[in-house]
Design goal:
The protein is built from eight helices and eight strands, in the order ααββααβααββαββαβ. With 222 residues, the chain is of the alpha/beta class. The longest helix is centred in the middle third of the chain and has 17 residues, at 77-93.
Length: 222
Amino acid sequence: MGVLGALTDLVLPRECGGCAAPGTLWCPRCGAELADGPVRLTPRVDPGVPAWAVGGYSGARRTAVLAAKERGRRDLARPLGEAFALALTRLRERGEIDLPELAVLTLVPAPTRARAARSRGGDPVARAVRVAADVLAPEPVRVAPVLKYARGVRDSVGLSARARVENVSRRILVAPVEGTGRSDCVVLIDDVLTTGATAAESVRALAGREVRVDAVLVIAAA
């Protein structure tokens, strides 16, 4: 560790974003947890396309997602993005999504509330998606942050499954999706899938723009 790193630790001590172990921003044990899966999900609200998660909403996955969202841990975009890239590679190997030579991969971050994004210094999911695209280089990967919530969408924490559906119904907007063809492999990316309401409405909204989603991928399933 250099002098600058030591001085930084005095002000903001290094700790693993998955288990709070001191002296590292991300430890090998937590890295192994993000290297699991992906596992197939059966959401209560069916998005109409296959949904996958790196693993359950527990351990390092849960802690990292919360740290990125609530504690401003922007550095966690790297391990989360690497986990997305690894999961996408494995889905290809299994034949669940198209190989690079068959279709251009387009990653669409799930929408986030504007107020939440401002308080977090940006959207942690979109940040991790950009890392995933970099990790998959030199393959050309499109990142299309085209989804946003309309006004009136509430924080979904504490809402029932039915209330979550009503909260987002017809309230996800899609900006023009430039450069995405019908033959592209489009994957919707989010951090956590709880009921599937946001994923289902996102898939529906994109279909309204003639964009066919091939799969949903999240870090953790609650």
